[in-house]
Amino acid sequence: MSANNPSAAAPTGPAADSTRGAVLANLLFNLALAALFTALFIDAGELPSSMWEPLGAGAFPRLVLGALILFNLALALQAAMALGHATSGGGTLAWLYQRRLACATLAAFALYALAMPWLGFPLASLSFLLAVQWLLGARRGRRLLVAAIVAVAFGLGLHLLFGQVFQIPLPAGRLW
Amino acid sequence: MPMTDALLSSVEQLFSLATLISMLIGVVAGVIAAAIPGFTVTMAIVLTLPVTFSMPPLQGVATMLAVYVGGCSGGLISAALLGIPGTPSSVATTFDAYPMARGGEPGRALGLGIWASFFGALISALVLIVAAPPLALIAVKLGPWEYFSLILFAITVVASLVGRSILKGLMMSLLGLFVATVGPDPMMGVPRFTFDLDLLAAGLPFLVVLIGIFAVSQLAGEVENPEELRQGQALIQGRLTVRPLVVMREVLSRPLNLLRSSLVGVVIGAVPGAGGSIANLIAYDQAKRASKTPERFGTGIADGVVASESGNSATAGGGLIPMIALGIPGSAVDAVLMAALMVQGISVGPRLIMDNPDLVYGMFLAMFLAAGMVLVFCLLSLRWFLRITEIPKSIIVPVVLVCCAVGALALNNRVTDLYLLIGVGLFGYLLAKLDYPLAPLVLGVILGPIAETNLRRALMADESWTLFFTRPISLALLVLAALSVAFSVRRVLRDRRRTATR
Q1: Per-residue confidence band for B305, with pLDDT thresholds at 50, 70 and 90
Q2: Fewest C-beta atoms under 10 Å: which of B102, B356, B389, B466?
Q3: Which residues 415-434 on chain B approach chain A with CB closer than 8 angstroms?
Q4: 0.90 surpassed by complex ipTM
C-alpha cells in the first residue's frame, strides 16, 4: 500500500483521479447503478397504461431509466478502458483512513438520527454537538467550554425556536 | 389584477414589520454564512427554506432572496481578509482584494467590494424587471413541444457547463429526472416506484434530497483534512476603517467596468447551471482584457475587486429571469427558491407573472430592498468581519448538521425523513468523491415533472413524435441542445489531446 504516494505523476486535469482505486470505484458504481436501473426498468413495465393518452404512467420513467442504463454502461466502459493505464494508488482502507474524520462525523450523524426518536431533539442534539466538536478538535480548556456552550445553546435554542416561534414541534423523545 | 393594484399590494406586504425583520435576519445570515469558508450560500438557502413554511408566500420568498443577496456579498469578506474564497463565487475577488488588504488597505478592499456588490445587484434587478415580463409573454405562447425541448436544452447546458465530464453531468440530470418520478405520476396520480413505503408515497421529499446533497455531503467533505480544521488565523492586523462615500465614488468612477461586469453576471446567471462561481472569473477576465493596464491586475487594484464582486452579485437577478419567466431555475439556488414557492402552493411557470403579479413585483422590490440592507449592514458591521472568519470548522460543521436535521424534520415531522437524509447525504458524498457534479441532479429533480407533463401533453394533442422536429422553435431548441453537447465533447477531446501531447 502506498498511501503516501499521491497522484504525483498526474497533478493536472482529468488525470488527477486516475488512480487504480478511483477507476475501480467508478466502474463498480456504474455497474451497480446500471443493474439497479435495469431492475427498475422492468418494474416500471407493470405500471398501468392509460386509455386517454398514448403515453401511460410508465412511459416517461422507462425513457429516463433506459437512458440511465445506457449512460451508466458507457461510463463503466470508459472506466474499464482507463483501468489499463491507471496509476497505482492507496487501497480502500488507506482512502478511508485519510477521510477518517469525515467518516466519523457521518457515523455520528447517523447515530444522532437513530437516537433522536428515543432521546428527543434537545438531548440528542446536545450530545451530538458535544461529541462532534470534541471529535474535530475541541479537546480541552477554553475550546471545550465553548463547545459546551454551543451545544447547549443550539440543542435547546433550536428546540425552543421551532417549537415556540415557528410552531413546528421537534421530536420530544419516547423515553420520557 | 391591474398593475398598480398589484404593485401597491406587494409594497404593503413587503413593508410590513414581520417581513422587514425576517429579511434583515436573512441578510445577516446570508452574509455570515458566505463569509465562513466551507459554508456556501446554497447551504444557507436550503436551510432557510423550512423556516419559511409558516410564513406567507411573499415574506418567505423575500427572506430567501435576502439570504441570497447577502450571500452574494459575504464571500468577499474571507476572500479579502484571509485570501480564501468564502464561496466559489468569490474566487476572483481574492486576486485583487487580498493583495490590497495585505498592502494595508483592508477597509478599502472591503468597501469597494461591498459597493460593487450593491451596484451589481441593483443593475441585475433592473435587467430582471425589464427582461422577465416580455419573456414570460413569449413563453406562455409556447406549446408543450417547445417547452419539452426547452427543458432538454436547459438540461444539456447544465450538464455541459458543470464538471469535467459531460457523460457524468448528463447521468446526474437523468438521475434527477428519475428521482422526480418517484411518487404519484403528475397526470393521473398513479403511484410509481413507491414499493408501498409510506416514506415514498408522496414522492421523495425534495427538501430532504436538497439538504442531503448540498449540505450533509458537502459538510462531510469539509472535515476531511485534519490540518485544515484549525482555520481562521487572522492574516490582516490592524483596524478596519472605511470611508463609505469615498469608496462609493471610487466604484462609480469605473462605470464601464461596473456595467460590463454586472451584465456578464446577469447573462451568466440566466444560463441554467452557470452561476456566480463562473461569473466572477469571466467578469474579472473581461475587465482585464478591456483594461489599459492589464499587467496591474492581481496586484491589488480596485478594478479587479469591482469586476469580480459586481459580476457575482449580478447573477442573483440574472438567475431569476428564467425562473420567473419560464419556470426554469438558473441555478441550484433558484431551484430552491422555486421549491419554496411550490411548497406554498404557487405554480411556477410562464403564467406566474399573470397569476400572481403582486408576488412577482414583491420579489423585484425585495431584490432592491435586500441589496440596500446588505449595503448598510456590511458598512456598519465591517469591524466585526474579522471575528466571523475566525470561527473554526469544529463548531460550524456540527452546528450546521443539526440545522440540517431540523430542516428535514420541519417538513413533515417524521423521523423516517431523517434516515432518508442520511442516506442521501452518504450517496451525495460518494457522488462528490467520484467527481459527479451535483447541480444537474437538483435541476433534474425540479424539471422532471414539468418535462414529463409537457411530453405527455404534446403526445395527447397529437400522437406524432415528428412535431418536436417540425415546429420551428422546438427544432431550434433541440439543435441548440445538440450543439451544447457537441461543444462540450469537443472541449473534452481538445483537453485530452493537449494532455496527451504534453
Answers
A1: very high
A2: B466
A3: 415, 418-419, 421-422, 425-426, 429-430, 433-434
A4: no
